[in-house]
């Protein structure tokens, strides 16, 4: 059975980390597979939304450290971290909207994989942690970039320096997640969000996502210039023409992505 499973329903792709016997801990080979998977989906015009989740009622317990326990060697050597970083960047660069569907644990790199998605929907049983410090490690998988943007610098430091386990309810209060739902409701909710995103205008959504991701690095003037350039691209597509026609005809638009 594949440790990284990809399924597609209409324009929605679901990436499932499938190693439930280890709470979906990710090995070195799996990081490389995740990076390749994210890049492949990014280039697939038939995919308009990507859902990331884990098998067996858990999201992801981070990197699998068991292979080197007791070896006396550093767990994260530079070469190994290249695969982790490649996966993180490949996820971040995806043009499609991404949703993390989180049940159970999302800790360490697994926590940051969830936060690296555009939207995070958590079950009431979800638990989050930047557990690195408790393992003698520093934060990775982009957590030092993601956390301050999600919850502010001082709360990010609290999470990263203590490594405490945070409940789904606490994560919602901090602003780590978009929604917290009963476990029985999470699948239907994520399916609805994914369908709505997949039905949206792909080019416009990708441009909006990129500008929001870059917003902390640009001035207001630069942001306005970027928005003008994006709108110029949008008005050159058939999707904008379709949206205007649908508005006039009082129907839902059917976007094609060109």
Summed up, what is this model?
With 258 residues, the chain is α/β, with parallel strands linked by helices. Helix content is 47%, strand content 15%.
Structure description:
- The protein is α/β, with parallel strands linked by helices and 258 residues long.
- The protein has two domains: 4-198, 2-enoyl-CoA Hydratase, Chain A, domain 1 (Alpha-Beta Complex); 202-249, Lyase 2-enoyl-coa Hydratase, Chain  A, domain 2, CATH 1.10.12.
- The protein contains ten helices and nine strands.
- A hairpin with a 2-residue loop joins β1 and β2.
- The longest helix is centred in the last third of the chain and has 16 residues, at 183-198.
- The protein is globular.
Strand order of the largest sheet: 1-2-3-4-6-9
Domain count, please report it: 2
Beta-strand percentage?
15-25%
Distance between the ends: 37 Å
Q: What is the CATH homology-level superfamily of the largest domain?
A: 2-enoyl-CoA Hydratase, Chain A, domain 1
Average per-residue pLDDT, rounded, comes to 94
Q: CATH class of the largest domain, anyone?
A: Alpha Beta
Keywords:
single chain; 258 residues; 2-enoyl-CoA Hydratase, Chain A, domain 1; 2 domains; six-stranded mixed β-sheet; three-stranded mixed β-sheet; 9 strands
Write the layout of secondary structure elements.
Elements (H helix, E strand, L loop, with lengths): L3 E6 L2 E6 L10 H15 L6 E6 L23 H15 L5 E5 L2 E3 L1 H7 L3 E5 L3 E3 L13 H9 L1 H10 L3 E2 H7 L4 E3 L1 H16 L3 H13 L5 H16 L2 H12 L9
Helix pairs in contact: 1-2, 3-4, 4-5, 8-9
């Amino acid at each position: 059975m594949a440790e990284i499973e990809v399924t597609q329903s209409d324009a929605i792709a679901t990436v499932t980390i499938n190693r439930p016997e280890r709470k979906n801990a990710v090995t070195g080979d799996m990081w490389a597979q995740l990076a390749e998977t994210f890049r492949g989906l990014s280039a697939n015009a038939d995919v308009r939304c990507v859902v990331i989740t884990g098998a067996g009622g858990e999201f992801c317990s981070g990197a699998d450290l068991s292979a080197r326990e007791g070896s006396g060697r550093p767990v994260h050597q530079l070469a190994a971290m290249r695969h982790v970083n490649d996966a993180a960047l490949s996820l971040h660069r995806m043009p499609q909207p991404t949703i993390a569907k989180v049940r159970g644990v999302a800790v360490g790199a697994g926590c940051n994989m969830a936060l690296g998605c555009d939207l995070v929907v958590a079950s009431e049983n979800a638990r989050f942690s930047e557990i690195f410090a408790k393992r003698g490690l520093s934060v990775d998988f982009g957590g030092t970039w993601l956390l301050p943007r999600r919850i502010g610098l001082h709360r990010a430091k609290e999470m990263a320096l203590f490594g405490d386990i945070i409940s789904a309810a606490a994560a919602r209060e901090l602003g780590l997640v978009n929604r917290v739902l009963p476990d029985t409701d999470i699948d239907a909710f994520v399916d609805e969000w994914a369908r709505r995103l997949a039905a949206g205008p792909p080019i416009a959504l990708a441009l909006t996502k990129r500008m929001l991701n870059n917003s902390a690095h640009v001035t207001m003037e630069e942001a306005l210039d970027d928005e003008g350039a994006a709108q110029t691209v949008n008005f050159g597509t058939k999707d904008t023409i379709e949206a205007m026609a649908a508005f006039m005809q009082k129907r839902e638009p059917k976007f094609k992505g060109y």
